[in-house]
Design brief:
Shape: globular
Distance between the termini: 43 Å
CATH class of the largest domain: Mainly Alpha
CATH topology of the largest domain: Growth Hormone, Chain: A
Oligomer: single chain
Order of helices and strands: HHHHHHHHHHHHHHHHHHH
Radius of gyration: 20 Å
Number of domains: 2
Number of helices: 19
Mean pLDDT: 88
Structural class: mainly alpha
């Protein structure tokens, strides 16, 4: 029998789940940047096809997210998260063995299933089941740890690629899921008093207003579109603003630290502030960064990266904390799945859409994401605390 952590062991629970989430993100969302080109070359494809398979995986994750969340609401997240590690390992193993593009796409589809049942939404729902409305701190805690997924994942994928090859790198990540992430998810609490006892009338409450749900889904879709567009095209955008290649790359490297720093602020200074207030502040960061880049050009590259990164860092946490604060913990997992489904689909389309805008309009393409960011801020201003 694997000894399990209790709900009262908050620090170890956060550390275990945060580390498992880091493995999940590093082995799915972040591997195309390193492995897509060698995958494509080996199979005689254009890298565009590998990214298309990855986009399909995000669509699959959007489709399965609500069902996974509903199961976590009923039974707790431990079993679902453990299953995700097995699914991830299967998909990565299929990629490693892929003899043809058809099997490559099948591998990515299975990885998409793992993403839908094993990344942030599932982790957030698991914590909401354990801690109820008090899950805000633990949710921030796991994003602080998993915020280093690219910092760890890209170099590790690159090292495995250089040492063995892309197929062996996929196998390596599959083994990390089985040897590290699976045992970590296995020690999480199986179920909690909150999950097993009947909710009180206060906890049940009235169903959330439909307008509030629609607005919040739009906010998540808009902000994830912007985040994914910037992740794919930031160096090109900064160079269009007049920054040199060296400056553009250096500025891009600041996004990760800015995200983590903002999450520390959320964990400390903002923890006594309603999540709606901190989310509004975060949503204003990208439009402000866009104005600075247009007005000052290349010299504002660093400021743009820091503002955008800081806003994105808090918005990632808001995906979990804002629905919890507005609507409560009852039915949280399924609701979170539905709220984030449009965001997953737009993530898949964001690199293509913004890339086309950048090619056609140059620096003026930033007004597309700035406008989307302002629309998200307007939606947040319409939302009210409950």
């Amino acid at each position: 029998m694997i000894p399990r952590l209790s709900a009262g062991q908050r620090g170890p629970v956060i550390a275990a789940l945060g580390t498992a989430q880091t493995v999940g993100w590093a082995s799915s969302y972040y591997i195309p940047a390193v492995l897509a080109v060698p995958m494509a070359q080996d199979l005689g494809l254009s890298p565009v096809w590998v990214f298309a398979a990855f986009s399909m995986a995000m669509v699959v994750s959007a489709m399965v997210g609500p069902a996974a969340g509903a199961r976590i609401d009923r039974l707790g997240g431990r079993g679902v998260l453990m299953l995700s590690n097995l699914v991830f390992a299967t998909g990565l193993g299929l990629l490693a063995a892929a003899p043809s593009p058809v099997i490559l796409f099948a591998g990515w589809a299975i990885i998409g299933l793992g993403m839908g049942i094993g990344l942030y939404e599932a982790g957030f729902a698991t914590l909401a089941g354990i801690y109820g409305r008090a899950a805000r701190g633990p949710i921030t805690g796991i994003t602080l740890i998993a915020g280093f997924a690219s910092t760890i994942g890209w170099p590790l994928s690159g090292l495995m690629l250089a040492t063995w090859g892309w197929r062996e790198a996929c196998l390596g990540w599959a083994l990390i899921h089985l040897a590290l992430a699976l045992p970590l998810n296995a020690v999480l609490p199986r179920a909690t008093e909150k999950l097993t006892r009947a909710p009180t009338p206060i906890e049940e409450g009235p169903p959330p207003p439909r307008l509030a749900l629609v607005l919040l889904a739009f906010v998540f879709a808009a902000t994830w579109f912007n985040a994914t567009a910037m992740a794919a095209h930031l160096p090109g955008l900064l160079q269009a603003a007049g920054a040199t290649t060296t400056v553009a790359i250096a500025a891009g490297a600041l996004i990760g630290p800015a995200q983590v720093a903002a999450r520390f602020l959320e964990f400390g200074l903002f923890r006594r502030v309603h999540p709606l207030a901190s989310t509004r502040l975060a949503a204003s960061a990208h439009p402000l960064a866009a104005v600075a880049l247009v007005v000052f050009g290349g010299p504002a590259a660093y400021a743009f990266a820091i503002l955008h990164g800081a806003g994105n860092g808090i918005l990632t946490i808001a995906k979990g904390t804002l629905p919890l604060a507005l609507f409560g913990a009852e039915g949280y997992g399924q609701r979170l799945g539905w709220l984030n489904a449009p965001a997953r689909i737009l993530q898949a389309a964001a690199p293509l859409i913004f890339g086309a805008a950048l090619t056609a309009w140059g620096l003026s393409a930033i007004w597309l994401t700035a406008g989307i960011g302002l629309a998200a801020l307007a939606a947040l201003l319409v939302l009210r605390r409950t």
